[in-house]
Amino acid sequence: MAVIDVPRKRGTSHGIFRRRPFFTLACLVVLFFIACAAFASWIAPYDPLAQSIDAMMQPPGGDHLLGTDSYGQDILSRIIHGARYALLIGLGSVLLGATGGLILGVAAGLSKGWVEWVLVRIIDAILALPSLILAVAFIALLGQGVDKVTLAVGLSMIGPFSRTVRSDVLQVKSQLFVEAAGLMAIPRLHIIRRHILPNIIFPLCVQVTVRVSEAVLVSASLSFLGIGVTPPTPDWGLMISEGRGFVSFAPWMSGMPGLALAALLIALAIMGDGIREEYDPKLRQGR
Amino acid sequence: MTPLFELREVEKTFEIRRKGKKLGLRALDGVRLTITQGASIALVGESGSGKSTLLRVLLGLTPPTEGVALYQGRPIAQVRAENREFARNVAMVYQDARGSLNPRMTVEALITEPLRHFGICTAAQAPARVRALLARVGLAPEVAGRFPSEMSGGQVRRVAIARALASEPTVLVADEAVSGLDVSSQAQLLNLLRRLQAEMGLTLIFITHDLGVASYLCAEIAIMYLGRIVETGPTRAVLDAPAHPYARALRKAAPEFFAPLAEPLTGEIPSPIDLPPGCRFSGRCAYAQADCRLTDPALLRLNDHRAAACLHPLTQSFANV
Ligand SMILES: Nc1ncnc2c1ncn2[C@@H]1O[C@H](COP(=O)(O)OP(=O)(O)O)[C@@H](O)[C@H]1O
Ligand code: SF4
Ligand SMILES: [Mg+2]
Prior knowledge:
Chain A is built from 13 helices and no strands. Chain A has a domain at 93-285: MetI-like fold. In chain A, 70% of the residues lie in helices and 0% in strands. Chain B has one domain (5-320): 3-Layer(aba) Sandwich (Rossmann fold), CATH 3.40.50. Chain B has 11 helices and 12 strands. Chain B has 321 residues and is an alpha/beta fold. At the A-B interface, helix 9 and helix 10 of A face helix 3, helix 4 and helix 7 of B. Bound molecules: adenosine-5'-diphosphate (ADP), iron/sulfur cluster and magnesium ion. Iron/sulfur cluster is lined by residues 244-245, 279, 281-282, 285, 287-288, 292, 297, 310-312 of chain B. Magnesium ion binds next to helix 1 of chain B.
């Protein structure tokens, strides 16, 4: 019989940037913020915490490109340093939520009987509350601070993550290759580790990129409500909140960090959607 | 000699809900089948006749509701639970070959898994083994590094067959392993299976709805209708002179082999949810008589090799066997 050589399909990973201009733009914006966060101390023209009575509430332009706040702190420097907190809290909490969701979702997806019943009820109970409300509740228990906000937002995201993980587990579990492995008498733990988990992790990673923007928004909201990060940390949510009282005569105080937050959120959302549309097998079937 | 597989009066009823009512769907009903070591048997029947369910019973994946399913004289469920021998000896090629392969594993990993799991070879020997198995099913060694998604349907079937052969099975069970492929891939795979059977002395249990495939590959045939095997015997003899009216109708509907069955008969197939009284084929049978609607015929011996589930087997045609 003739030996058949199978031509390999070309990977399309390079094509994605050319096919999706908005996605590419969003990636560049996110990269820009990551660079700001990474090199904040070198890029920022001023110390973000340096207060100055002489330079209070200066409008944008002049010495302070984006103006100063009511303490005379340089807003540009604070935004650059703020990127650090936004990304750190956003990523940290999403990873925390994804890890928790993975554990809870896999347990719920694989268990049977009353254990499954209890776990599903727990997930449903978490899901019944919006993540911001949950995060507020956790803050009330944990207290304020960067680490507490990360933890609170992370915990509040376990619900949605565990729901998608559980449905993925149920879907993968019913697939033929899992039955085929059972037919081969491969032990259950091996089947879970080798056949089920690898098929869960990838969609979970896609979920992570989709949900980073939500985490950034919730953490900024906590700070805006004055129950998240404590002053004088250069956090965007906090800065927007501090400028609120001066909106009529110094709108840049809230406006500049607001713009930064909006830009990052939109870029993250477009990036997440692009990755999901590109790699989510459920959406990809039509292609 | 104890047969390899023996099914005695196997019945499988699935509980289904329709319009809020619980109903029993009889996927298998009074199935009698004996498969000896080294045999090659084709299971033929229209879609929904219970072929896949019968395979699942043979593999121990579905417990029969009634009757006994034996492997070497012992209940299949018990044999399967005991150790890995059954899993190693009885390998399966799924109808949906792609679905039966983990999409996140390379061909190499997919074939190495049974090799290592059954201790066929050491980790160091595995790559060479994988390549030998690939060569055996007619695939180039470079394929080892690829994922199933990078391969065509015919290639994936070959990988599935190579994987099934990895455990050095004595029985190969295949559910429509060549259907849906283009003619040349079908022919290549059939040749491959036939060669493997000759070389390795495999027992082959092969589901198909193609009489040509059945007669090419299998010495024996079992024809199913609505959950029951209605005729068994040597493939040639059965197809040359069918004893059961349904087998005859099938044969007449497929004058040319190697063409999938078209809708072979007039009349509706009854639903397996409420089977007609008497013979399940009576509504469509050209030879039906009054007693056919009263008595449900069981699969009975006609001679040493053949059996049919019919009250009035076609003896004229049967006489020339
Ligand atoms: N798990 C199941 N639950 C309910 N009904 C089933 C199940 N599996 C098969 N059936 C029914 O049993 C009958 C036989 O199915 P199957 O064995 O798949 O037939 P075939 O393989 O010959 O097409 C069909 O009517 C099918 O709908
Ligand atoms: S038993 Fe009667 S109805 Fe059934 S196949 Fe035989 S002749 Fe036809
Ligand atoms: Mg089938």
